[in-house]
Amino acid sequence: MASYLITGSSRGLGLALVSRLASLPAAQVGKVIATARQDNSPQLTEIVEASSGRVELVKMDVTNKSSIQEVAKLVEGKLQGKGLDYLINNAGLADYAPAGLEGMDNLNELFHTNVTSVHNVTQGFLPLLRKGEKKVVINISTTLGSFAKAEVYRLSPTPAYKISKAALNMLTIQYAQQYEADGFTFVAISPGWLRTDLGSSRADLPVETGAEKVVDIVQQIGPHQNGKFLNIHVPGWENAPGNNQYDGEEVGW
User: Which GO terms describe its cellular component (predicted)?
Assistant: First the structure.
C-alpha cells in the first residue's frame, strides 16, 4: 500500500495521474496526496469524495517555500508515522514565444516554477521520503528539454519551456547522484504530447493515456534506473512519423 504525493493535481496530467492511481487496487496504492495551488477543481473534488479516504486534497503553492514546509508537516500527520513512497513533481508552466528569444520575457517565471520549485518541494519532503519504503522521486519533464533532440524541436516556439526543462533534467541527475547511496531513485519522465490546456487539442495523445503510461513506469521503477530520462511506451507509436515517438526507451539528454 504505497503512498504518493502529486503536485499540480487540479487539472491536466496531474489530475489524470490522481484519477489513474485512485482506480488501482488499495493493495497497490494506499494514500494519494493530491496537491494544488487552488482547491476549487470540481473534477478533483469528485475523485476525492469517491475515494473512501484514499485520496486527499491539500492546498499547496509550489512557488512558496513556506507553503511547502507547512504542507510537509501536514502530510507527515496524514501518513500516521509512515514515510512517503513516491513524490511526483508534476506542476509546471509552459510558454509561447512566436517571436523567439527576442520575445522571451518570462524565463525567470518558468525557471522558478519548473526548476526552483521542484527543488524546494523535493527538499521539503526528503525527510518523509527517507522514511518511505520506495524512496522514489519522479520529475515530469519533456523531450523538448533534450539537447539531443534540440534540432527536432527547433521550430517549437517555447524557448523558456525548453530551457527550464533542460535544467530540470540536470537537477534530476544531481539529486540522483547525491542520494543514490541512501536508496533513493530519481527519474525524469517525458509523458508525451498530451491533450491538455498546456499541450492543446492538437496533441498526440489523450491525457488519460499519458497518465496510464507514466504510472506504468512509476510502478516498475527500480534503483537501476536512478538518474535516467525515460519515455513512455504507447504501442503503435514506437516508429511513428513526425517529431514524437513513444517507444519506452531512454531519452537522450
Answer: cytoplasm
